[in-house]
Amino acid sequence: MPLLAACGSGESGGGGEGRSTEEDLKSILPTYRQSDTAIDPDIPSENGSSPGYTTFIPTAELGVSVPTPKGNGGTFTAMTPLWGTPPRAGNEYWTAMDEAIGVKMNWQTQDGNTYGEKLGAVLAGNDIPDLVCVPSWELGGQIPQAISSRFADLGEYLSGDKVLDYPNLAAIPTAAWQASVFGGALRGLPMPGAPIGGVIPYYRQDVFEENGWSPPTDPQEFIDFAKDVTSAKNRVWACEDMKWSSFVIHGVLPEKPNYFAMVDGKLVNRYETDAFLEALEWTRKLYDAGVVHPDAVAVQGDSKNRFTAGESLMFNDGDGTWHNLVAEQQAANSDFRMNAFDFFGADGDPVLWRANGANIWTFVNKTLSPDRIREALEIANFCAAPYGTIEQRMRGYGVEDVHYTIENGVQVRTPLGEEQVAPETYVFICSPGSFVAYPDTPQMVEDLTNWQKRMLPFAQEPLFFGRQVQEPDRFANLADRFEALEDDVVRGNQSISDMQDAVAEWRRNGGDQLRDWYQELLDSEASA
Amino acid sequence: MSQSTVPRSPKREGGGGPASPPPKHRKPGALRAGGPRRDGPPRARGGTEAWRHRLRRDYPLILMTLPVIGLLVVFAYIPIAGNVIAFQFFSPYAGDGFFQSMANSAWVGFEHFQTMVNDRYFWDAVENTLVFSMLQLLFYFPVPIALALLINSILHNKVRAWAQAVLYLPHFFSWVLVITVFQQIFGGAGLIAQVMRDNGWGDGFDLMTDPGFFKWLITFQVIWKDAGWGIIVFLAALSMVNQELYESAAVDGANRWRRIWHITLPALRPVIALLLVLQVGNMLTVGMEQFLIQRTAVGVGASEVLDTYVWDRGIANHQFSYAAAVGIVKGIFSLVLVLAANRVAHAMGEQGVYKKQ
Amino acid sequence: MSDASVLVDDDEETKGKRTRPSWEEPPTQIGLAAKGVILAIALLAILFPLWIVVATSLSDAETISRTGGLVIIPDGISLDAYRELLSGGQVANAMWISVCITVIGTLFSMTTSVLAAYGLSRMNSLWHRPLLMTLLLTMFFGGAGLIPSYLLIQTLGLMNSYAAIILPMAVNVFNILVLRAFFMNIGTELIDSARIDGAGEFRILWQIVLPLSRAVLAVIALFYAVGYWGNYFAAFIYITEQDKLPLQNVLQQIVVRGERPMGMSAAIGTGQIPSIAVQTAVMVLALIPVAVLSPFVQKHFKKGMLIGAVKG
């Protein structure tokens, strides 16, 4: 495994440093084979956008990708993040899924917003669940080392044609698998994502149209508009925390390992860029202006609830939120409409950094026996069933007449479905290639795919795009503090110059060495 | 180290002294059954024979202490040794289990201590900790004394008992409960905000998320929770003041305030000195839960104290070695503070925490 | 370190008034009024917030929506929030967990502490001094630090087990010293005559010492129970499974973080039960055992006991 070893200075920790070369990947990655059950989308993919499905497929016409339960009745503990309210253990949805897969899942869901705190504690212990989900934004600190040392190398079961035992896994796009190679081995079961859509700026289309507003188109206009529409007295605020949107608007580089860009022949880190400070400054203005919902200032409650209740008119979140909100509101508030507005740049066109093929993975505990690992892969195979299959319908909607009913030719979630199926869990174990298929909310499918199509021309690949980079241990905690500091700076609790001091300190404490290390990585790959 | 201050206790530590004229001398049977006990002379004199005798006599007592000793050894003494990782680059992923991981982790000497000195967040945490401690010293500390004087002057017993019951109550609440009570009153959706909104006196009132106000907020919380309970020690001291002193002072024409100044406060002096020593010794420990729970609301910058810093670096972010180093430094400085405060107390003629040798 | 405990015999009558000594001047009207006002403010500062919490938790959706949140004067009474919370689900589960931790922990702590206090109550028993020092020293350095303790729990494999909450906080040296001081204070005559009758130490402890110590036992048991009931941090770092969390942690999630309790999303989301009623109801559940028990035990520390405590 010709990983970069030259720069490591014998520090502790598992896993090779550097990243797998294109050559290595050839022997590691699973073979791609399109699913037999795949069906043609109503809205075809364009330029990398997700295929969209708007027509409902009657249950009788659904394909079958897992004809019989493949599990052996084994019990698996699984830790996944969960946004929303966790359903009771032993609920009808989880039980039905267990029976269909042939296993018993023991979910240990954690609040998605504080997932990182628990994740560290769990991985450092010796009581690691059988399946552990790790989102890319929690890869800070020593988590990459933990992944390399605690989780199984799935290459033995999935590399090359071996994956063909699991047809739904074989149909996962190669780009997603490529981003699932950690420390030189295929360890992650990917949840593939669209190239853009990690941060989408949503707005209340119904409220906007009613008042004749149109979404803002530049940073200053956004602030002015936000001030106009905020009315604390009526409990209406313009937005939630827009920090992540601000990063996109100002073209700030993404997170590790994509946080370096080559500027005039020198690597520059996201924290060192003017764009980063400008993005914080702009967000800070929003907080200053009092247009951010006070609960968001206080980091309390759920921004989605405030958005649907009309207390805040704009917020940003991932693309997964869209359907859940629209579906949830269909019954309660038929006037509810939301949409995404187009990102604008700070001056001119925006820059949307392309995301890797997968940004959320589930890992399998390496202490499991090979048979148990195969059984775990069967769970993943079930969860990765593509659109148009019985398995996918069940994973996404639960049991017919219990969690959803068919009304006017589309499926509609029941209250039980909202409670048990909407807070997603199985989707984190593994998912098929990105698609947008919600016949119950066809308008939303069109809106999302259109947004992707409008935004994709502005998408760029970051310098270290596509693969994981394992940094040496000694740099592991360099950037830990930035997120908390960012949150303090935008709220006005600390100043921009505090952030500049922190960046200077980052350089001194290893940031410059980290830059050299990445430079060497590039050099050694170029000369290889 | 002194034993408890036990008024009217017939026994004094350091046993066997002339101060214990045991009534059991009058009971000849005592010798037969129990052998020479507290007052017996064969103290470590007779070599192994006497030792064996004492073992036979006392082994049930030793057995009784063993569960507690065992718990302390496991949960208080053994972990001290674990602090050696402060001189390592310890990674829990370097091996299976603690010992293997430790064996595989590199030694780095005092590197973490150096990092600590250069870390602005560390100094922020130190600053916050000291500021919070000082505020408590200034604003919390006098409250129980004043309340105790007030309660003590109530003659009506029923009123006294009820007042005490209410005042003690918040001490038994958990921090989570105390903070949630504060939130319902002072939070963005709390009572005050609600009243202001209803009356159109402006909106957006929220003391719970105001970083500038936080140091006062936590001081108020401490007062609310513990000031009532704090009076108990002063009440005890007050109940031991010789009433005749008051009477003769009153006869000499000293008014109420002069009596408080010349009799009551001097009587409270040892207790106040003791509590001050403890407070100073605990200067670097302002509590954990109170800050952890309110961390997200006011931001890390305003709320980070040394203990949460150690938690954040070590447990949330996995820098076990670094956090252990910070813990060691904190422990050493705390010890130094107690000893120093005690010295001052001795110099002022007070007893302090441990006895002057 | 001195335990600063003070054993006083506060055997005052609880009925009637103490009489004012003849030498003391009668209080002025202003003085009396000022005293009354200050006392009233102090008591209101404690009771009023608690009243609001209780009143809101018992109010129906209509009252709450009329007042805009918290309720000062209850109108429509509804037990829905409690019914929903206790009908199973996360809060009921957490409550049960907390009760178990508190009961088992307190029994365990009391057993070990009483044994140790008695074992250390004879001044010149064998190894008395080193054993006592082993206890006292821990008060001096205040524990080994968070990180080593945390790694110890991990190494012992106690993560996600309630032993990780109970064992590290089972021993409170201060409490043991209070018990010990009390035991040392018990008259020796009874004990000696029991010894003549051939009673062993365990029997003496059980049959003579403990029955004489009911009050101090109640007080110390309360201290331990309150500690277990109110603990948040241990579960926060050692319990990573959501459905194993005790009540304080669930309370924090629901009120401070504003989350909805597991399995209650529908009732709150549709507004059948206002979320403020649920929040305050959980607070009341966390408060009740303490509010009920502590004044009851307070009689004991009035009646003759221990008082004291710098950080009980």
From TrEMBL, chain A:
Annotated localization: Cell envelope
InterPro entries per the UniProt record, alphabetical: Bact_solute-bd_prot1, SBP
Top-level taxon in the UniProt lineage: Bacteria
Name listed for the protein in its UniProt record: Extracellular solute-binding protein
UniProt source species: Streptomyces cheonanensis
One Pfam family matching this protein: SBP_bac_8
Region (Disordered): 1-22
Predominant localisation class: other
Entry similarity comment: Belongs to the bacterial solute-binding protein 1 family.
Keywords: Signal, Transport
Chain segments annotated as transmembrane: none
TrEMBL record, chain B:
Domain spans labelled ABC transmembrane type-1: 126-341
Subcellular localization: Cell membrane
Keyword Zinc in annotation: no
Gene Ontology CC: one annotated term: plasma membrane
Region Disordered, residue ranges: 1-49
Domain of life, per lineage: Bacteria
Entry annotated with the keyword Cell membrane: yes
GO annotation, biological process: transmembrane transport
Main subcellular localisation: membrane
Pfam families listed in its UniProt record: BPD_transp_1
Recorded topology in the membrane: Multi-pass membrane protein
Keywords assigned: Cell membrane, Membrane, Transmembrane, Transmembrane helix, Transport
Regions crossing the membrane: 61-90, 130-151, 172-196, 216-239, 260-281, 320-341
PANTHER family (alphabetical): BLL4140 PROTEIN
Family named by the database record: Belongs to the binding-protein-dependent transport system permease family.
Listed name of the protein: Putative aldouronate transport system permease protein
From TrEMBL, chain C:
Broad class of where this protein is predominantly found: membrane
Species this protein is from: Streptomyces harbinensis
Statement: the UniProt record of this protein carries the keyword Iron-sulfur: no
Matches recorded under InterPro entries: MetI-like (IPR000515), MetI-like_sf (IPR035906)
Domain (ABC transmembrane type-1): residue spans on this chain: 95-294
Stretches the record annotates as Disordered: 1-25
Official protein name in the record: Putative aldouronate transport system permease protein
Localization in the cell: Cell membrane
Ion transport keyword on record: no
GO cellular component: plasma membrane
Family note: Belongs to the binding-protein-dependent transport system permease family.
Membrane topology label: Multi-pass membrane protein
GO biological process, one term: transmembrane transport
Segments passing through the bilayer: 37-58, 94-120, 132-153, 159-183, 204-226, 276-297
Gene3D superfamilies xref list: MetI-like (1.10.3720.10)
Alphabetically ordered keywords of this record: Cell membrane, Membrane, Transmembrane, Transmembrane helix, Transport
